[in-house]
């Protein structure tokens, strides 16, 4: 039975990649995908293009004629993991093509691993394909090679990430994403909806909407309108969410900044007939206005507590998830205690926390007042203690409630499920450990909650 959170590396979870056995003489490519769900979508796009050209996808190093490593370069620790993954692929296979965010620093990669075949940056799909063609020439058979209806997926069949834009227009001092991935470029609304329709038709039951700033979707396109169904749809997060919610799947919104127009999403979430889940993933990062100002965060002057109260008044069942940074340069004990007090009042449902670390190229590196490592660790411990207590209290209040869950995994011990309040791989689980044998991944069932922990629930099938 899996625990929360599970391993996020698809290369270490090869069972997800249910590919048919390669035909005689079919070239085979492996993939190691690191980093966030946005990078995972990039990996899926690359693999789908390769499958369309007749390549087989190998779930292991030994069966591949070359390996693509899609890297993360957001933090120094992520860079180290990427270099380690490249080294492992070179050791196990020997023929490695590097892409992704760290690919924006080719000298950094080749300095550590000069034998890689090629290095390409993020979203450079054509260059990746060119590198694969050079290393392993394609040999397609159009009468045999069939592309799955939903393309190649690195997630379970019942949920899928849908990336609605690339890049970001913000200039947060601790972040180098705009330098690596560029400014905001939104996909047309009808293109996103067509992709989502195909995914739902192929059996996907949950669509996870991702971008760097979901609230800003369509700003670069001036919220242009496109024909859709019997009318038009704007490239705007509200229009997009409304139309996605009509497709018959759960729709979960990630990376939503608390701009005023986000209020327009709440009525969609409050309507049980709509598929938009009452769930907002909002990267607050901190609460003290001076820290937010040093971070150069968007919406830094917003009264977030008042906004949260409005959302809950309009949608009492809404789940709020967020991430925070402690130990940011210049953070005082008073500012940190302000954050703890804010968290105690906001009572967010799902919370993640990171200790600040320098990132090569980030402007925050040059700020004065860097917080010692032992202080960062102490503040992280104290923050998580408060967050854990809030989570435990909120989950205890669900005991006895009836709710719909989606099944992610079934093994000999239990069915691992999620409620509407839980995103895959980052939030909690609900476990059914009796009478679960007939369940299968992707099933949606009614349960009654029997027991709660700090982050997870246990329940039984409702009679």
Automatic annotation (TrEMBL):
Family the entry assigns: Belongs to the methylthiotransferase family. RimO subfamily.
UniProt: [4Fe-4S] cluster 2 binding residues: 168, 172, 175
Name of the protein described by the UniProt record: Ribosomal protein uS12 methylthiotransferase RimO
Classification of source organism: Bacteria, Pseudomonadati, Pseudomonadota, Alphaproteobacteria, Rhodobacterales
Residues where [4Fe-4S] cluster 1 binds: 36, 72, 101
Catalysis: reaction(s): L-aspartate(89)-[ribosomal protein uS12]-hydrogen + (sulfur carrier)-SH + AH2 + 2 S-adenosyl-L-methionine = 3-methylsulfanyl-L-aspartate(89)-[ribosomal protein uS12]-hydrogen + (sulfur carrier)-H + 5'-deoxyadenosine + L-methionine + A + S-adenosyl-L-homocysteine + 2 H(+)
Essential cofactor(s): [4Fe-4S] cluster
GO cellular component assignments: cytosol; ribosome
């Amino acid at each position: 039975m899996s625990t929360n959170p599970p391993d996020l590396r698809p290369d270490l979870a090869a069972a997800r990649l249910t590919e048919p056995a390669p035909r005689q003489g079919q070239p085979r490519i492996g993939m190691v995908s690191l980093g966030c769900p946005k990078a995972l979508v990039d990996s899926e796009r690359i693999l789908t293009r390769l499958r369309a050209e007749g390549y087989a996808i190998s779930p292991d190093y030994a069966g591949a004629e070359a390996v693509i490593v899609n890297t993360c370069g957001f933090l120094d620790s992520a860079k180290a993991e990427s270099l380690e993954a490249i080294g492992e692929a070179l050791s196990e296979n020997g023929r490695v093509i590097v892409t992704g965010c760290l690919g924006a620093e080719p000298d950094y990669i080749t300095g550590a691993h000069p034998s890689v075949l090629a290095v390409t940056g993020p979203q450079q799909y054509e260059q990746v394909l060119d590198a694969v063609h050079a290393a392993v020439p394609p040999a397609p058979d159009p009468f045999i090679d069939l592309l799955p209806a939903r393309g190649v997926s690195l997630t379970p069949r019942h949920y899928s990430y849908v990336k609605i834009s690339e890049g970001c227009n913000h200039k947060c001092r601790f972040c180098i994403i705009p330098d690596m991935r560029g400014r905001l470029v939104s996909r047309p609304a009808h293109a996103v909806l067509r992709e989502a329709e195909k995914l739902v038709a192929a059996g996907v039951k949950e669509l996870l909407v991702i971008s760097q700033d979901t609230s800003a979707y369509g700003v670069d396109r001036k919220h242009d309108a496109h024909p859709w169904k019997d009318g038009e749809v704007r490239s705007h997060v509200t229009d997009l969410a409304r139309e996605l919610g009509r497709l018959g799947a759960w729709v979960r919104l990630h990376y939503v900044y608390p701009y005023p127009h986000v209020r327009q999403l709440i009525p969609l979430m409050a309507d049980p007939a709509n598929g938009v889940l009452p769930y907002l993933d909002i990267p607050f990062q901190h609460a003290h206005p001076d820290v937010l100002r040093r971070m150069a965060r968007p919406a830094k002057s917003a009264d977030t507590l008042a906004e949260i109260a409005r959302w809950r008044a309009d949608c009492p069942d809404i789940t709020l998830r967020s991430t925070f940074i402690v130990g940011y340069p210049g953070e005082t004990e008073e500012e940190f205690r302000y954050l703890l007090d804010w968290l105690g009042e906001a009572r967010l449902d799902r919370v993640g926390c990171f200790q600040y670390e320098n990132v090569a190229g980030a402007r925050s590196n040059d700020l004065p007042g860097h917080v010692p490592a032992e202080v960062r660790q102490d503040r992280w411990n104290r923050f998580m203690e408060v967050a854990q207590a809030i989570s435990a209290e909120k989950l205890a209040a669900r005991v006895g409630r009836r709710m719909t869950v989606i099944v992610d995994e079934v093994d000999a011990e239990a069915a691992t499920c999620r409620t509407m309040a839980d995103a895959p791989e980052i939030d909690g689980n609900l476990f059914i450990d009796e009478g679960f044998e007939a369940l299968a991944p992707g099933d949606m069932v009614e349960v009654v909650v029997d027991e709660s922990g700090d982050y997870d629930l246990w329940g039984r099938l409702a009679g």
